[in-house]
Design goal:
The structure is a single chain. The protein is α/β, with parallel strands linked by helices and about 240 residues long. The protein has one domain: Rossmann fold. The protein is built from ten helices and ten strands. The strands form two sheets. The chain has a six-stranded mixed beta sheet with strand order 6-7-8-3-9-10, with helices on both faces. Strands 2-1-4-5 form a four-stranded antiparallel beta sheet, covered by helices on one side. Strand 4 and strand 5 form a beta hairpin. The termini are far apart.
């Protein structure tokens, strides 16, 4: 069995007295694409923030590469390979595409390898290459999403966390973004995908978890979940 890279046990996270995450368990193994699905407000983004060290948790544990992340800075975790593409993309709008990619490699010192990785990102996202000197703020939402993913890849993630990558995009761009997620996964990157678009997320994933009101209510093989009547009724509009 593949090595467990990320393990979440009994995780509880509270926001100003409201418990947003109520004691959840899940894991991501090397080489997997795992989807965490659920409706808006289920606690998915809160979970992602806790995993990346940007939000403290009140109970439970999160282990990355067998070590607790408790008390460690988000920048340390990025250095070890735990990298997130946040909801809303968060690109640096007044910097060019190339400068945004270079920022993604800020923890690295291997200049020659960084240049090669920029070329790799451009090969994955030809649209970014065409606009290499353009300011990120002048790009469409879908292009900014590609840039945010490219920037994350520059940190050479061991686990890539994607928080709602299709949110707010046109149907054509949603197709493109899911194509790119599959391409990144096919290149050997382990992915944890948080997504409201349950159908698309489960079609791509090896395994899935359903989150409702701060709890994980279902988990299993993604293809089996895709045909589960309860999942179909709740998330696929059937």
């Amino acid at each position: 069995m593949a090595q467990t890279l990320l393990k979440v046990s009994g995780l509880k996270v509270a926001y100003g007295g409201i418990q947003a995450v109520k004691g959840i368990d899940f894991e991501v193994r090397e080489g997997e694409l795992v989807s965490l699905i659920g409706s808006n407000g289920a606690g998915k983004t809160t979970t992602m923030k806790a995993i990346t060290g940007t939000l403290p948790f009140v109970a439970g544990s999160i282990e990355f590469l067998g070590k607790s992340i408790k008390g460690r800075g988000a920048w340390d975790l990025v250095g070890e390979g735990l990298v997130m593409v946040p909801e809303g993309r968060g690109v640096f709008t007044r910097m060019t595409i190339t400068e945004n990619l270079q920022i993604g490699a800020y923890i690295r010192k291997d200049k020659a390898e960084i240049a090669k990785d920029i070329d790799r990102v451009f090969a994955t996202f030809p649209r970014l290459k065409e606009r290499a000197t353009q300011l990120a703020g002048t790009m469409s939402g879908g292009e900014q999403q590609m840039l945010a993913m490219g920037r994350a890849l520059m940190a050479r993630p061991k686990v890539l966390l994607l928080d709602e990558p299709s949110m707010g995009l046109s149907p054509i761009m949603v197709d493109k973004i899911f194509e790119v997620v599959k391409q990144v996964y096919d290149q050997g990157v382990t992915v944890l995908l948080v997504e409201q678009n349950a159908s698309r997320a489960l079609q791509l994933a090896d395994r899935g978890y359903v989150m409702e009101s701060g709890l994980i209510t279902m988990s299993g093989d993604a293809k089996v979940m895709l045909s589960d009547p309860k999942v179909r009724a709740a998330y696929l509009g059937e």
